[in-house]
Specification:
Length: 139
């Protein structure tokens, strides 16, 4: 058997220079604020609003909390905004009546370019991501 002439392959990877990083898309740009649009299906009323990351924003009986908003391909012809959003159904109590505890009705990534990909589904409300903003507008 001629196995003794083969060198062990343990050191072969050490001599190679490190591979250059792949030319992947640049990292997504994180934004401090998301722009969401909500629809009340009963009244057909829509509202577009900015939701700063980490700050709950109420629309009627819903409370939106954006955990992250990032844009891929910023500066390209078709930037792709996505936001990680948590939506709680939190009805406001009537006078003298304590409101029921809030209940989480949505948690996940919303995609501005494909709102049907991971949609928020609710019998009364609809909501979707419009874009991520570089800075929150002055209040």
């Amino acid at each position: 058997s001629g196995d003794q002439t083969k060198k062990p392959a343990t050191n072969s990877a050490v001599a190679k220079p490190p591979a250059p990083p792949p030319l992947a898309a640049p990292k997504p740009v994180r934004s401090p604020s998301a722009v969401l649009q909500a629809l009340d299906k009963v009244t057909a009323e829509t509202m577009r609003f900015a939701a700063p990351v980490g700050q709950p924003v109420r629309y009627k009986n819903l409370v939106f909390t954006v955990k992250a908003c990032e844009t891929n391909g910023l500066g390209s012809a078709s930037p792709q905004a996505s936001a990680y959003v948590v939506i709680d159904f939190a009805p406001q109590g009537a006078e003298g009546i304590a409101p029921p505890p809030p209940r989480q009705v949505y948690k996940g990534w919303m995609f501005a370019n494909s709102p049907g990909l991971n949609p928020f589904q609710h019998p009364t409300y609809d909501a979707w991501l419009i874009t991520c903003m570089a800075a929150a507008p002055p209040a």
